[in-house]
Specification:
Distance between the termini: 36 Å
Number of domains: 1
Strand content: under 5%
Largest sheet: none
Shape: globular
Structural class: mainly alpha
Length: 190
């Protein structure tokens, strides 16, 4: 129950200081390590998606948690790099919002897909999150920013995974994430 309280407080704090639901803007961002560490926390979509993916991935009995984190880090990195090759992706924001909704519903209903399909779903959505954050680095790739961004994203994954330590706690954050994902999806389509 303490972890759930901490999660709720963290989300409330982010909402309090947040100017929009998305961290993705056309502004050039600072390329520092600190900026990379903080950036996933200021965009509600990324914050919630990483927690949701951590929550659902740890419910999958076929996944090894360290291997999942490695795949997620690699997918964030590849998505980040792809953003330099493909400068514009029109369905990015709706896809990011839908990732929260879909993954949290998978978690809520304890969806058990086969291992390969589960992995593809996670990679698909994480690539989009990496792309979104890479597309903001208009001045070029910053290794420090990228390291900070990936480290913070992995910490959010671990937070999501830790929520499955008490099985009765899985439903509450899954419902909260699904509601937030629904709202963000509706706003991203309007």
């Amino acid at each position: 129950m303490k972890r759930l309280s901490i999660l709720c407080q963290a989300i409330a704090l982010v909402l309090l200081f947040q100017s929009s639901a998305y961290a993705h803007s056309t502004e050039t961002i600072n390329a520092s390590l600190l900026s990379g560490l903080l950036h996933p926390l200021i965009g509600l979509d990324h914050l919630l998606a990483m927690i949701a993916i951590g929550l659902w991935s740890s419910q999958q009995k076929v996944f090894n948690k360290p291997a999942t984190l490695t795949i997620i880090a690699g997918s964030l990195f590849v998505g980040f790099i792809i953003s330099y090759l493909l400068p514009f992706y029109p369905l990015l924001e709706p896809t990011l919002a839908a990732s929260i909704l879909i993954i949290s519903l998978f978690s809520l209903f304890a969806a058990r897909l086969n291992a390969r399909l589960s992995l593809y779903v996670i990679i698909f959505f994480v690539l989009h999150h990496g792309f979104a954050h890479g597309s903001e680095m208009q001045a070029g790739i910053s290794a420090l920013y990228l390291i900070g961004f990936i480290v913070c994203s992995l910490l959010l994954q671990i937070l999501g995974q830790s929520l499955t330590l008490k099985p009765y706690l899985i439903k509450i954050p899954s419902i909260m994430l699904a509601l937030a994902g629904s709202v963000l999806t509706v706003f991203s389509l309007s």
